[in-house]
Amino acid sequence: MVRSPEEFQAWATSAWGRRFRDELAVADPAGEHPWSWSLRPPTESEAARDTTAVASWVTRWRRDGGRLPGGVRVDWVVRRWRSLGAQRLPIRVQGEDFAGLAAVAGHRQDWDRGTHAVAVLRRRCAEQASPGVVTPLDAAIRRHGRALVDLDRADLSRLVDVVDWFVAHPDSGLFDRELPVNGLDTKWLEHHRTLVSDLVAAVGGPADLGLRAHARPFAVRFLDAALAPGAPRDFAAPVDELDRLAVRPSVVWMVENLTTLHAFPMLDDAVAVHGGGYRVVELAGVGWIRAARVVYWGDLDTHGFAILSRLRQHLPQVESVLMDSATLAAHAHLAGTEPRPVRGEITHLTFTERQALAALRDGDRRLEQERIPWPYATDRLAGSARAPSDRLGPAR
Asked: Other C-beta atoms within 10 Å of 181: how many?
């Protein structure tokens, strides 16, 4: 079946989206890379069946083919048919480089910016790409093709200066907003962090950029004021500062969500800590937490159990509460659907926890901990405070 100018436009647009990153990373993205696209011209019998449609198709390509940008052209051929005589037909569209295809797709300016950025980066990094050899810089260019075609000249100059600075100062120990690079906006590195990091690593610099990391705090609530007389009931501190606290609670309650932390009831000789999702494993570095009985309460979903599993690999004594089939059954009407559940195996769970996980996976259900009414939760928390939960079953 013959192909129309609209189909060619759609193909060019699709080809741009699929290929521009790879094309940017080739040895010479601005060089010649011939391509062609067949128009599937009709056979004599096909043309004879509908001469009007074929004539219209030829007319359209004669008109639209003369408007193609960037050196893209339509090739024509004369067919000599017994029944229809000599007919001049378009047979293919072709171009000499990817720039022409980008122009057809409406992305010629993007392509020019991208190839200029790649040329500047290779020149400053003193690297010449070689056909068939994929270097770390090639891989970084391919990964960040979208960002490179979006860079204007000022941002490209800033990018190169920043990469140069990090390569020259691999262990600066500065915060990301302290970089002494001329014209660098305080937000610029935050917005381009991954691009900069990958380019620096590609040319032999540190992937972490040698910067000083901001210590991320964990929110804490003293559930018993006697543990730290005069101290604030609610505060936040990074792990190293938490480790220096002179407190010795008998129980540490870890919760997945901040709302639950702030609503947690008062309990004797206890502290509640916001685990921050998968970051919760960092709390295993706090001495008074390691020395305490630790009870984890997370969402009743696959990620809640995956977080519990990961925490238990660092703190084997961790128990769970309100993460069982009975809690799920009692609040089934409040459960929703988990949008992106964990499909792989989750280990380090007790028999009771594995039962709850199986029930959740039957329908990808999810019960967020905030949905559980506090009267129900308080009774279970009080009961758990008196009686430790079941022991770990086989890690499966």
From this structure: 13
The model's pLDDT over 346-382, given as tens digits with 9 standing for 90+, comes to: 999 999 999 999 999 999 999 999 999 999 999 999 8
Q: Where are the domains of the chain?
A: 5-106, 109-202, 218-386
Q: Which CB contacts under 8 angstroms, 24+ apart, belong to 196-202?
A: 196/159, 196/162, 196/163, 196/166, 198/140, 198/143, 198/144, 199/121, 199/137, 199/140, 199/144, 199/159, 199/163, 200/163, 200/166, 200/167, 201/136, 201/140, 202/125, 202/135, 202/136, 202/137, 202/139, 202/140
* Cβ neighbour number for residue 326 with a 10 Å cutoff: 12
Strand order of the β-sheet with 234-237 is 234-237, 218-222, 270-274, 251-255, 293-297, 319-320
SS3 percent helix, strand, coil of the chain, rounded to 5, is 45, 15, 40
- pTM score over 0.70: no
- Considering the segment(s) 218-386 as one domain, its CATH architecture is 3-Layer(aba) Sandwich (3.40)
